What we know:
Layout lengths: L1 H25 L2 H8 L3 H4 L1 H24 L1 H21 L3 H29 L3 H33 L3 H4 L1 H15 L14 H19 L4 H28 L13 H31 L4 H29 L2 H24 L4 H28 L7 H29 L8 H20 L9
Amino acid sequence: MRRKQIILLVASTAIFFEALDIAILNLAIPLMQRQFQLDAETIQWVQTVYVLFYGGFLVIGGKLCDTAGRKNIFLAGAGLFLCTSLGAGLSNSFIMLTAFRALQGLAAAMVMPSALSIITNTFTEPAERNRSISIFSSFAAIGSGCGLALGGIVATYLGWQWIFFINVPVIALALILAYKYIDKDVVNKQQKFPDIISSMLLTLVIVLLSYVVHNLPGFSKNYQQLLSFIVVIVLALYIFRRRERNQKQPLIDLSLFRSTGTITGNGTTILLGAFFLSYLFLLSLVLQQNMHFSAAHAGLLLFPFSVCSFLVSRYVVPALFKKLTVLQTGILGMCLMVAGALLLMMALLFDHSMPLILLSIACVTGSGMSVCYPSLTSLAIRDIPDAQQGVAAGICTTSYFIGAGLGLSLLALGMQLITAATTVNHFSVLLVGCFALPGVVWLLWVRKKIPPSP
């Protein structure tokens, strides 16, 4: 029993640091921006490349667990995460920092599915497994909450480099415990190795697409480079499509996308990812640049709402699922996101009204995200056969992170085209709100086409 508890702790450490790493960066971004003397549109690439590489390689990370062994992939991914955290903290240039962040995303894409696989294979009894998965998932909420608070405090008093350095000792300990306590892999040698080339092509497409979108305002100056990237995108998509048709086990089985619920769940999840990380990015700039809060002060302001998010996930969402359908719960969650954007926009119009900002944060990070993510994931996988639900859930998570990366790039494009101010204004928030509003419209539009869950 003690060995199982250690394995659960080690695996939960993985999702904790994955959630922590995304949240902790938001409040440190303005400090990085000042050190590297970059504009807000450029500094967001530190977050964008992480989520794009994470999303792009997540499916292949899950499939590698079956072919190379879950323990091997966990150790390799955690080791890479440790090294890239150290490298990011030691970076003395923006390009170097961005490169390490991209590799961190790749490492997270290896660690996450392998950690979940380790838990499901260690805890085999249904009640024991459900309890362990619940504990595992709760570490994500704790990681996000700690990240929003710690990011500001650590960056203020120790420097932004330490938001990466704090990963190193804990992950090193987790690696030692994982090597000692997790059972040795029994690899099926007849299992076909996954199509890594297709995964690399998919990641190349979404990264280049984000870069092209981001740099569209300067098209007249860089048209040769951007046109060449567009050609590469089209060519990579063509090769990816051909490979997927010819593979017996394609990277993404398009036959899964037959039901309206699956298409709607994944499509709205893309919009959710685009909205949420863009909202956090703008919120950190509003608090620190517009209102001149220190990063530590901003972190402490956001922390109670992360605790609220955990409580909503634990107690409110299960009650909602009993009272409402999955689709109705998703509509409620996306409406909270739109309301959060409207409240933040009104706060900026009314001279940065603190009550309106707090209400906005309560709608988005305090409750909306906790309601949206499980309901949209449930919608995406509810019509999928049991044997393929793991893959379907991985695709849904991939959709979220691809949406997050593209959303940040579209926000940067909009800020360059529409907002000339150096600080965030209501037009920037309106752009972010436009990511969530189509999600509400989409869910309302299909509500009669999707029958309630049995």
